[in-house]
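Section 5.1 Outputs to date
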Amino acid sequence: FFFFKQKTAYEIIAGDWSSDVCSSDLFPSHDTLAYRGIDFEPIFNRSGSSLKGVLFRPLLSASSTEVLRYCMEGIDAIHYWQCSNRIIPLILPIKVTDLKIAACVDGLCDLILNSRLPIGLINIGFLHHQDIDNELTAAVTKLRRLGVLFHALQFDGNPNTIKLISQFQFEAVHLDVSHLRETSSLSGTQLIDQIHLLKKWSCKTYFSNVTFVRDNELAYQLGIDYCYGSLMLSPVNRHQIIHIQDSRIGKALFSIQTSK
């Protein structure tokens, strides 16, 4: 007997009709995936004392044909953590141009529905923000119905992004702290004003690229909720995520307190 494998959503988008293997052959086993990629960037509260989420970095530079494959890997990682009794939200960065592709959104919705994960564990981080149009509105509506939470990544004060956050009631905004190190500059002052506005909208705020101690100090001064970057902890593989409780700076602060 011969049978044809039903094509996965990402294969259809990629136009790949050459595969004649089962889906289990397309992806490495759980054990192989667990140790393979240093792809998961831990996110902590600003004190670094508690792991609050993870950013899946491969999607930051993924092409349109790779989006669904990486989303599948990310969702699989959430399941892997659940099996180890760790309930950890994951942020999947996706370009707005890809979210405007109906086939991509439909494939993503299928992945989320089939995952049967609790609401709040799958978060989509919007990249390269553009004007709001019918395609984007339709995508956001579909994903919101499935309980997906929205983050605005790489926020730089762009009016299109502010409109996006306001209209679709984003849960969180991520700011690159390097843009705020010179708080006396015009751009730094404007971003600080916008942080205060975002907090009035009940948006959670994140600092990315936290590299220096003064970055963490600035997070305290501005009331930033969460931080990630090399000062907190460098990216790790998905198995290492299971064993993370606090950040590098959190461990240092704990050592200082216990030694007093």
